[in-house]
Amino acid sequence: MKPSPAVHRSTMRSDLDELIMNRRTLVCVGPGGVGKTTTSAAIGVRAATLGRKTLVLTIDPAHRLANALGLSSFEHQQQRIADALFADADLKNIAPLHAMMLDTRRTFDEVVRRYAGDPEVQARILESPFYEQASTRLAGSQEYMAMEKLYELSQTREFDLIVLDTPPTMHALDFLDAPDRLEAFMSQSTEGITAASTKFLSSVGLSFMKANAMILQGIGKFLGTQLFLDILSFLGDFRSMYTGFRERAQAVKAMMRSDDVGFLVLSSAEPSSVNEGLYFAEQLTNETMPVAGYILNRVRRQTSDQEAGMDEETAQSVLQALAASGTTAADAEELLRKLELCSRQANEIAARDVAQTVRVRKAIPAVPLLAVPDFDEDIHDLRGLYRYGQHLASVKGFGE
Description:
Shape: elongated
Order of helices and strands: HEHEHEHEHHHHEHHHHHHEHEHHEHH
CATH topology of the domain at 15-176 and 260-300 and 365-398: Rossmann fold
Helix content: 55-70%
CATH architecture of the domain at 15-176 and 260-300 and 365-398: 3-Layer(aba) Sandwich
Strand order of the largest sheet: 3-4-2-5-1-6-7-8
Number of helices: 19
CATH superfamily of the domain at 15-176 and 260-300 and 365-398: P-loop containing nucleotide triphosphate hydrolases
Number of strands: 8
Largest sheet: 8 strands, mixed
Low-confidence stretches: 1-11, 196-201, 203-220, 395-400
């Protein structure tokens, strides 16, 4: 009987498998468009094959990835991947694997209900027309809510491993600074914004009218005072959450620096992407957050010497095939010339990718590195995710 490919209990674990078995949270970070979501899902599948009850928490997943996991769509609630789907992919004895999409607004709603203890204050915040902007568009809100949800889930100890796919970002510090930026906003709303607002009211001669809502409402038709006071009221309600929010933000940051967490930095082999990936790794290190690995994705293979073009045997095979199809000798030679040019260019690109791999190794020699090839086929099902996870976890590669 052919053994299930899920049976992998080797005594010699790869670096990635060690992380899966010994960390409670793996955070995939890096610029957008480098395969973080697919990699997160592949690590989740790998963890399930190793017997770890796993949750993949993603932010903005592609619909095709939901299909690959056998889901019609991602939801804010935890969704277990059906055992039958693993069986169909010839994967057996799999630990429970769940997937979940972060809903920033709903997570922010939960934060409000947690820290605005007074039900009336909760209702005013949640029903305020300004809340939509604060919960979904405030700088750092998505990044922070990802960490907030991660912290909440980690405290339940429901899962052996949580894999977080972080939001795409153009700047490494957006993710790391999110708690500080949101905390600064809430702090300013309690002091700076209120002080500036009072000064404004005084400057237009309205300070003596603060208690008279009817007069202010009438004057507001001309000066916009009512809108201004509505904003003040909203910020005042927001102020009530500051202490709890600050304590939670500090707990989140402490968790992200703990030994239970490992950051996996991803980039493509494009020089600009590597620049950002290395910068991200540097900032993580500066913030004393544990960089557990660097994944260099979509590295092109170098098939021959970059100047050699197509080898003689291949060239002759191409010419024979063209002749058999009725192509004239002149046209065949021209096509062969273009193919050789394409081959040289492909090898030049591959050589550049290899150089970027060497560059990463030299820049962060203490961090395990895996150069993932640019696979010929797109990942569209559990089999593909499993194979990708196998490659990520190959003993020969990740730690070299």
